[in-house]
Amino acid sequence: MATVKKAVAKKAAAPVQVRLGVDWRSFYLYAICLITLLIVLFSVVSFVHGILNVVFPDPGYVDMNTPTTATSKLAQAQQETINQRQALKGMFTSLTTACIAAPLYLYHWKQTKKA
Predict the structure, then answer these.
(1) Closest to 50 measured CA to CA, from 90, 79, 78
(2) 35 φ, ψ (degrees, to nearest 5)
(3) N or C: which end of the chain has fewer CB within 10 A?
(4) What is the torsional sign of CA 52, 54, 55, 57?
(5) Is 73 a member of any domain?
(6) Is residue 98 domain-resident?
(7) In a domain, 4, yes or no
(8) pLDDT in tens, 22-58
């Protein structure tokens, strides 16, 4: 009985490609992720600041040398209302900015995971 030896084919190691220099695609993706993440962070901080301005509005300028009258109290109340309105506008702007930057961040972060 003849024994047949099977030839074992050895797999050649695949050559490893070494990149020299900067991977610009990864650099771009991570830079965009960093920028959009910072934008979201600052928008959230600004939104919280706006909430505090709505709850505790700035009373406005009061001159201590003039006597308080009904007109000055009315002007101070109007100033508080204006400050609250400005705070609401700022909150809306912050929320809009965060709603635009967050999906951009998520998209680019997913692109970094694919690469």
Answers:
(1) 90
(2) -65, -45
(3) N
(4) positive
(5) no
(6) yes
(7) no
(8) 789 999 999 999 999 999 999 999 999 999 999 988 7
Q: Hey, what are 108's tokens?
A: 């680019």
Encoded amino acid at 108, one letter? H
Q: Which two tokens stand for residue 100?
A: 């635009």
Q: How far is CA 96 from the centre of its chain?
A: 11
Q: Is the pLDDT of residue 6 over 70?
A: no
Beta carbons within 10 angstroms of residue 54's beta carbon: 15
In a domain, 5, yes or no: no
CA angle 88, 92, 98 (to 5 degrees): 140
Cα(49)–Cα(27) distance, integer angstroms: 33
Dihedral angle of Cα 50, 51, 57, 60, to the nearest 10 degrees = -10
Residue range 63-95, pLDDT digits in tens: 667 777 777 778 888 888 898 999 999 999 999
Residue 44 neighbours by CB under 8 Å, 6+ apart: 94, 98
What domain range includes position 91? Answer: 87-115
Q: Residues with Cβ < 8 Å from 36, sequence gap 6 or more?
A: 101, 102, 104, 105, 108
Number of domains in the chain: 1
